[in-house]
Amino acid sequence: MSTTFVHRNLPRLLLQARESVMTHTRPSLREHGLSDQQWRVLRVLGEHGTVETGRVAREAYILGPSLTGVLARMERDGLIRRERDPADQRRTVVEATPRGRKMVQRLSCTIEDHYQWLERSLGKQKLAQLYELLDELIALEHP
Question: Matching InterPro entries, A to Z (predicted)?
Answer without folding.
Answer: HpaR/FarR, HTH_MarR-typ, MarR/SlyA-like, Tscrpt_reg_MarR-type_CS, WH-like_DNA-bd_sf, WH_DNA-bd_sf
